[in-house]
Amino acid sequence: MGAMISRFWFMLFPAKEYKIVVVGLDNAGKTTTLYKLHLGTNAVIAVIDSSDRTRITIIKDELFRLLGHEDLQHSVILVFANKQDIKDAMTPAEITDALSLHSIKDHDWHIQTCCALLGEGLYDGLGWIAQRVTGNTPR
Questions:
Q1: pLDDT tens digit sequence for 95-129
Q2: Under the GO molecular function aspect, what terms does this record hold (predicted)?
Q3: Whole domain around residue 121: which residue ranges?
Q4: What is the pLDDT of residues 12-71, one digit of tens each?
């Protein structure tokens, strides 16, 4: 599966190198997400544990701190709303409000529901990044 993802990735991103920063609190699903995507590239991926309402402000503070970094001034932001399979998981609208995503004006951003454990939604998020970073529509 990793070889297939690598081939897909290099079809989308031929010769140019990109870098992605993945942020998320412990147990949000960052490692599982990366294992599923085998990724490394010019975007920020924030993995949110959609069932953890108590720590959403911590990831908000961290995300806005990161966005102030000069190396990320041209990056796009993908928020993976992970663990959507858990009962009472926050909706994308709830996460958007909790993270104040509408206040982000200098970066393209997208929130993608997913279940990293099952691989659901991961390719949709990856496709969004590919389209924004390269300006090409994924094949």
A1: 999 999 999 999 999 999 999 999 999 999 999 99
A2: GTP binding; GTPase activity
A3: 2-134
A4: 666 666 677 777 888 887 766 665 554 434 788 899 999 999 999 999 998 898 888 777
- Answer positive or negative: Cα dihedral of 68, 66, 57, 121: positive
Q: Is 112 annotated as a binding residue?
A: no
Task: Give dist(CA 43, CA 46) in Å, integer.
Answer: 10
pLDDT of residue 38: 43
Kindly state whether residue 30 falls inside one of the protein's structural domains: yes
Residue 73 lies in a domain: yes
Is 26 among the annotated ligand-binding positions? no
Q: Is residue 139 part of a domain?
A: no
Q: Considering the domain boundaries, does residue 65 fall inside one?
A: yes
Mode of pairing for the β-strands spanning 42-49 and 76-82: parallel
Q: Residue 53 gets which letter from DSSP?
A: G
Number of folded domains that form the chain: 1
Phi-psi region of 104 (alpha: psi -120 to 50; beta: other; left: phi over 0): beta
Q: Is 60 annotated as a binding residue?
A: no
CATH number at residue 58: 3.40.50.300
* 87 marked ligand binding residue: no
